Automatic annotation (TrEMBL):
Gene: LOC106161343
Organism: Lingula anatina
InterPro entries the UniProt entry points to: CEP55, EABR
Protein name per Swiss-Prot or TrEMBL: TNFAIP3-interacting protein 2 isoform X2
Stretches for region Disordered: 1-95, 386-409
GO biological process: mitotic cytokinesis; regulation of phosphatidylinositol 3-kinase/protein kinase B signal transduction
Lineage: Eukaryota, Metazoa, Spiralia, Lophotrochozoa, Brachiopoda
Localization (cell): Cytoplasm
Length: 409
């Protein structure tokens, strides 16, 4: 009975089958189901230590790991030592070692199935190559090679399985890291999209303000043009009145020269006002064109913003700079218009002063003419022999009156 081999030691016994790797076809393993997120979490995150524990058995799997794995390997070694002491025959030792190897291969098969289920639904090239290598190893471990398998082949198989399992774990860990990075990128893109929406609302509000300011300036320009036209009409009326006053009264040369000087000065000022008005109108036209260009640019930027919706920060900064330039140009235009309005107000005040001076000179000229006529009539009354006054004497009398009035002034 000691020399007879136990039935489970036979090479045809199912306990020696390395089958646990080839117990189901490759198509069933890889098509059993797509790896879901829980399977990835089991392998890639919290259960990576358990996978390492399952892979590390006996002396070939002794690496740095938890205490359970060390205890397990020690228990297996103790069992082997007790078996060797009890049964010192080579056949019994071989059967015990084969049993331990079978258990290790079964455990490795469980780990392999878990990793296979985890990477079954992945399309990455690394996972595809790993699946091909695992299927190749399963084919090598099919039943027709069981009887020919020797201990070195089993060791080589264990080493290859260990290596492939490590590659699988590394690939799964990399895949999980890539998924985490993609989730972080998605959250960042959503934050950037919200920021772009806020910036778009701000740009729209600024554009609305620019439109309102432009409408106000258009109304102001129309009112200013109307006011300048009324001023020109009043100036023409004053010129006509001045011509009528010249034709009705014979003013002396000094007063005429003064009036001519005032008129020339007022004409020069009026021409200067007209030239400045033309310049301001040209500037206003340019500013309007610039505003239209800026508005068109803002619309283009909004269109680009709607098309992209996920642009980088440099584009947003460029849009901000362009909006800032538009607002600065608008502020400069407003300041120029305010200066033009101030100049127009100054010119209006000067025109009113000129008008008052003109009215004052006209009143003084009429008053002096009436006084000279009255003096001439009184001088003629004291000359009873004269029926018609002498022109020369009348002029002398008028010169005396002028000298008296000038002395009074």
């Amino acid at each position: 009975m000691a020399h007879s081999k136990p039935p489970h030691h036979s090479s045809a016994s199912p306990e020696f089958d390395l089958p646990s790797l080839s117990s189901e076809p490759e198509s069933e393993v890889f098509s059993s189901g797509v790896a879901t997120s829980p399977s990835f979490e089991i392998i890639g995150s919290s259960s990576s230590g358990n996978v390492n524990k399952k892979m590390k058995t006996e002396g070939e799997f002794n690496q740095e790991g938890p205490g359970d794995e060390v205890h397990r390997s020690i228990s297996v070694q103790d069992q082997l030592m007790t078996g060797r002491k009890v049964a010192q025959r080579p056949s019994i030792e071989r059967s015990e070692s084969l049993m331990s190897l079978t258990d290790a291969l079964k455990k490795q098969n469980i780990v392999d199935e878990e990793i296979t289920q985890a990477v079954a639904g992945c399309d990455d090239e690394k996972f595809v190559t790993v699946r091909e290598k695992v299927s190749k190893l399963k084919k090598e471990c099919c039943p027709k090679h069981r009887r020919r398998s020797t201990t070195p082949e089993k060791k080589e198989l264990r080493r290859s399985l260990k290596k492939k399992c490590k590659e699988c774990k590394d690939c799964v860990a990399k895949h999980l890291e890539a998924m985490q990075i993609s989730q972080e990128d998605t959250s960042e893109q959503l934050d950037e999209l919200e920021k772009l929406k806020v910036e778009n609302m701000k740009l729209k509000s600024q554009l609305h303000k620019v439109f309102e300011a432009n409408m106000k300036w258009q109304v102001y320009d129309s009112q200013r043009d109307h006011y300048v036209a009324t001023l020109m009409e009043q100036l023409e009326d004053l010129k006509e009145k001045l011509q009528q006053a010249k034709s009705s009264t014979n003013l002396d040369e000094a007063a005429q020269r003064e009036i001519d000087k005032i008129l020339l000065a007022s004409k020069d000022k009026v021409t200067a006002i007209e030239e400045e008005k033309i310049q301001l109108e040209d500037d206003l036209r340019k500013f309007k064109q610039l505003c239209e260009q800026k508005e068109q640019r803002i619309r283009q930027l909004e269109a680009q913003l709607r098309e992209r919706q996920g642009g980088d920060k440099d584009v947003v900064e460029a849009l901000k700079q362009q909006i800032l330039l538009c607002t600065e140009d608008f502020e400069a235009e407003r300041r120029d218009r305010e200066r033009a309005q101030g100049k127009i107000f100054d010119l209006e005040t000067e025109l009113q002063l000129l008008r008052r001076q003109l009215e004052m000179y006209e009143g003084e000229a009429v008053q002096s003419m009436n006084s000279r006529r009255q003096a001439a009539l009184e001088g003629h009354a004291y000359c009873p022999g004269r029926t018609v006054p002498d022109d020369y004497d009348l002029e002398e009398d008028m010169d005396e009156v002028d000298s008296l009035t000038s002395a009074k002034e």
